[in-house]
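Quick check before the chapter quiz. The format below is the same one you will see on the exam, so make sure you can read both the input and the output lines.
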Amino acid sequence: MTYLLIHEGEDREYLLAAGETLETDLGVLEVPDDPEPGQIVETHLDEPFTVRELRGPDLFNHLERTGAPMMPRDIGIVVGKTGLQSGDRVLDAGTGTGVLAAYLARMGVTVTTYERDPEFADVARENMAMAGVEDRVDVRSGDVTEAVDALAETDFDVVTLDTGDAAAVVERAPELLVPGGFLAVYSPFVEQAREAIQTARDAGLRDAETLETIQRALDVSDRGTRPSTRGVGHTGYLTFARNP
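Here is the expected output.
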């Protein structure tokens, strides 16, 4: 099992497995075989590190990246709009770093995810092992559009897509989804979002809509509180639709 080791004074964080040893300028850090969350582990130079269990934001910050992963706020919208829950089966495409797959698997969801780049797929498998969800995430190397015929034999509760050619899968979504199942498409560009929602409607999916995700922080000071002027926090477009 992997844990987060935090040194508050030096603002350091390390992901380490139980029993693993790490050499740092603060000393040699040895993780116990079965540490408890909140336990203090000291290096041989008496520098203290606090043990924490991994949570979703820790995965986002520390998994090895092969591209820009889906932001936690986008994942939250996907979960909220589709009602994902433990026991659901998800078909995902565009694995990348695997942050979405890891988040969902830690909720008890079974994920089959496709990644075109074999090297990216290998990294994603390592990330799933680090997240402790390798038994619930099947990372497959290949193009999901070429596997749709075989995948149609499995009814998925939700299909999530983060690929440039998502529309090719959207048009087959009725064959992939259980009755009442949801489609969720992440698009970095508005043209892709438009194609996804039009294809969803043409395929007979219901309640198709596209949302732009924006998050804006508040600046809080002694003078007062106001919205931050450091950008609007746009990440992308999320298209949702439901199988009749």
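If your answer matched, good. The chain has a mean pLDDT of 94.
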